[in-house]
Amino acid sequence: MRAALRGELLDRLYGRDEPAWDAWVTGLSAAERDELESVLDVYLRELDGRDAEKLAGLGRALGINERARREIAAGDYWDRSHALVWLTLLRDAPDRDLLRAHCTETPRERAAAARVLYAARTDDCATTGVDLLLRDDPDPFSVFGVDTLYRVAEGNPSPFFERAAADFPTWPPALQRQALLVVRHLTTVVGGADLSWVVAALSSADPSVRAAAWRALGAYGWNRRLRDAIDLDAIPDEPAPAVRADAYRALGVWGDATALGAIEAAGTVDPDPRAQVAAAETLVAQRGPDAVPAPSDPPQHSAGVAGDQSADAVADPSAPDPETPAPAVPPFDVAWDWAAEHTRFDRLARDISRDRDRLRDEVRG
């Protein structure tokens, strides 16, 4: 049965000017209609463009659209989810009030409802889509939900930025991170959107949100107004080493003299080795592994230790202090050497990969 239905479907889709779906479906048995829905489900996931538009007519002939609307209005969670999948495949957006009334109970339903609007390319995809996703104290989304939020905001980011500017402080940290991830990838379409809430996220009580804010801001080095609102001198005061590391990476993406100067000022004396490595990797990427690292001051001794030194040691700084170990290599020099060595190795590996065929021929020849 499936083979016969598939053959007839493809013949009507590609072999005729008009597929005449209604006439075909009318003559099918209940079992054939059920099987045809399964075949249609497969092809709607594989095809796009004009072919998908033609196949949507078969969905209407089978009554899938209207059945999906009834399931949204009167079904349970699984009925609604199944109905939303079908409407997305058929690019058929239902009445918006129906979606608002029945499809905002869970993050999955919110994402699925907004995805219908995106698939159908409705004029209100951004406004209604953002409203469905982010209204009424939303919970964090799955990866599909974050992707849907990005897609509905990409064409018209204003509704998303306006909602975030108003509600961002009330969202849980996980959702805040997801919103900042979307911002990170909307760089080319933001226009004059209000991004003050992204800068404010640098002061969040949650370090993961502060880190996500830096990662988002790394993509906006071109936005002078936004950059002027960021206090680069406050980076050394950031208590979380991982957040400082993300700050160095973000400034490295900006890549201008001001940003690199801020990395040198904070990163070369950062007390955390991993953060120092992040700063070194960023500077090496900008200046090359053969550049000379910025000098780093050795750790200062505490006042108590200095007070125990003899007068002769103070008078003669070159005299060795038996209680003080020999000075080690400055920590940032170690981080720089590590980053430079990895960069050189990466270049060597790429050179070998590029010349692999030539080297193989030379060895064989």
TrEMBL record:
Protein name per Swiss-Prot or TrEMBL: HEAT repeat domain-containing protein
SUPFAM superfamilies, A to Z: ARM repeat
Superkingdom of the source species: Archaea
Annotated Pro residues bias: 319-330
Region feature (Disordered): 288-332
Biased composition (Low complexity): 308-318
InterPro entries: ARM-like, ARM-type_fold
